Amino acid sequence: MSNKLIPLTVRSHYSLMWGTDSPASICRAARRMGYDRLALTDTDNLYGMWKFLNACQEEGLTPIVGAEITDPNKNHRAVCLVKDTTGYANLCRLITRRHRDPAFDLSIALPRLANGLLVLTTHARLLAAWHRAGVHTAAALPRRPPSPFHPVVQTARGLGIPLVATPGSFFLEPDGYAVHRLLRAIAGNTTLSRLDPGDTAVEEAWLAPAKEYHRRFAACTEAVDNTCRLADELAFAGPAFGLVMPPWEDTRNLSADDCLRRSAYAGAHTRYGEELGEALVERLEHELAIIARMDFSAYFLVVQKIVSQSPRTCGRGSAAASLVAYCLGITNVCPVKHNLYFGRFLNPGRTDPPDIDVDFAWDERDAVIDGVLDRFAGQAAMVASHILFQPRMALRETAKVFGMPDAEIGEVTRRLPWFWQRGELDAGLLENLRQRPETRHLDFVHPWPQIMALAQRIIGIPRHLSVHPGGVVITPGPIRDYVPIEKAPKGVPLIQWDKEGAEDAGLVKIDLLGNRSLGVIRDALTNVRANGIDFDESRWEPEDDPATRDTVARGRTMGCFYIESPAMRLLHQKAGNGDFDHLVVHSSIIRPAANAYIQEYLRRLHGGSWDPIHPLLADVLDETVGIMVYQEDVSRAAKALAGFSDAEADGLRKIIAKKDRQRQLADFHDRFMAGAAIRGVSPDQAGAVWQMMMSFSGYSFCKPHSASYARVSFQAAFLKTHYPAEFIAGVISNQGGFYSTFAYVSEARRMGLVVDPPDVNTSSIRWTGKARHVKVGLMAVGGLGGPTMEKIIACRQTSDFKDITDFLDRVQPHEDEIRAMIHCGALDTLDTERSRTRLLWTLAQWQAARRRSQGQANLFTARRLTVTETPPPVFPPEDPATRLRREYAALGFLCSQHPITLFANVIMTMHTVKANRLPGLVGRRVRLAAWLVTGKVVHTRRGDPMEFLTFEDETGIVETTFFTEPYRRFCHMIDRNRPYLLAGKVEANWGAVTLTVDRVQAIERRVKGEG
Length: 1011
Hints:
alpha/beta, 5-stranded mixed sheet
């Protein structure tokens, strides 16, 4: 008996909600068990194919590519294993049909696409039919050999079809069955106790050693031997597409290279004038040569065509370092003027496909993508995102299948950070929760420890497929020949791979992304022009405007794209510089691992002496005072100090940013230290440079990306400086800034603007600004639906509303909508006394008349309701506090004042200072009454949580720091809907004032008039 066996039916966790383990884990386990080959056959997909191929290479295994195809309408299934490139293309087509053809019938579809495939099935009738149709088939024997009289065995014997052992696996160890059952219960939205046997795989569906399979198949050893014989026919080890570029056709029959050259020079003359300098031409020629050599010309031309359809875009990422891209109008920042390094985007040694990222206004992006998908129908699709279980989701879903009450689940999960990621788990889930300040007081009694243990095991497992924010792939031929295609819930075609898989395959991606700030700038400029101001964008250079630079330097940039976060505003205040070049530096140096270098940067910026770590880096880091700021600084330093090639340096940069990097990073470290030593760099100097490189772990940015965004930041800052009402209206209307509407309304008041309440006769759906007034848009009214807003605007085209009865007759809103409009003041002008009580009384009268008229009026006849002419009674004066409280409930803010003023009588007794006085109180302890705006939890070097919170009162905004102990004591009590009494010490760092808080007390609502 042979000791060999090849597992031919293995499922990973990409068999969604069935499999439990990653392709990498499966390959490691297979190698430990002595296998040298195995197949990955996930159900109806190739989601994990590239991770499987990479893991096989890492473990020294020979991969077999395949998939299990199911019939959605019948209990039919088949495992298809790829023999050659034809078979791979056919498998992609078959999976595509399975997902996109509502009438898919496996028995009919498979024979038509069977060329190049080995097909395994347990169904006797299908086995015979497919064999007669010329399909290369084998009779699959799952789990254990059946009786010799079993139909599939008899059919195989009669037709000379080989029997093959296919003991399929869904998990790696016997105890993985519990995780498998958990996933099946979550998928079925049921509890563990209600799972039927047919809902799960069998208990022994784990990947066993060959010895165990020999034991199970002792009665049919030929089926075991046939796994090896058949596997020998499966020579395909994965597709080798090379770089897959979008197609380009020119009506003049010019090559893509010629078309690109002509377009680039035409654009250069538009950007720079008729006389192009020698340096400019030299760089243009250099880039065109590299682009042509790497066969990227068609890619540039296709992106130019896409971008040309939209009037406002922002090309960003490393592509913004390209002069060709700038001349084509793909990007908007001159790479020559700003010294942007083209090699970060393309260099001769680069083997992976870079992509071009282009931002469009967020509400225009979908139309752009639809246009691309229509133009390249059948050759284009969106890139997928594989959505994984994160700690919060895993915990919630596991508790549900244990039958825990929603209230008890919510008590735990609502205290967890919304973006708690699996990478933040430095201990077991239960231990982590017991250590977290937010949940330390909870008593995790039975069955919570068991829930935690199981939830821990599904963290990181794929839950479902989603659409990448904007990645589009375009292929020269049918895209289904490269990768299986699904249809996303939003209707767009979707490849089955995520962006890493697309990159591994060589599919060059175009990122077409939505950016709300482009919508802000568009709407603000539209508003400015509607106010009668002639604004010429063609001559707009906001970065050269002194007043705008001052706005940036003072950190007064709430609402300004990319530079409005508390950290960015504080950094600009500390630096005291608001010019374009410093903004580019600042937006790149703020990254999670660079805090220590930020302080050193500020010291040097303010005149502190410094020398480069080594003379070889003097030119590399001169413009950033010797501090590594941009991603390309890593690559350039590795080349200058250790002699890395372009490709090696770029590889190091990419590895540093990855999470699972340790093995490869150790190799790079050794090569870096050795190369530095050869060039006379001491171990201490090389170690210091390496340590600075490690500050780029996690996310970081390249200079071209930051420069592109800095351009948008300056446009926003210019508009805020010179047209504040129009700008803040655009920010709130586009609903996408760092802060809430509440915070932006407060900022408007701080800028001296008047916030006018909504009005059904004068408000647009969106917010509008004019002079020093901001008009609240109808969109701000809570619960007011889009159709009702549109109907209000349409009715006003005929005439304004005369009174509330006229409004109700013509618009006929839902009751919750009309009550919200009354409470927020949108109907105040329809009552002569602006009495909201009388408006509510009239509403009640109108509703009574409407009820009386029901059944009497013809359903197809519109008529004005007759309201009883009973004069309204005399109402007592409205309580101001109640009126404001209802307005706040309807809008989420107050138009006339900050809600903290409603607590003035309480705050007066607390001996507090106002936020605008803090700069004069540095070094002193103070008490401040303030409202929470936003916050961010970070971790100290020891891993302890702390938090930076932004508070405000009616006079100003203040950034606060809650170190570990105050955070532990008070984090559970702070939310955004009430004021707090903060006690702490006023600190200053390079002129930026903050409050280090050590005590917090909630201010109770005891307002005059409320008892």
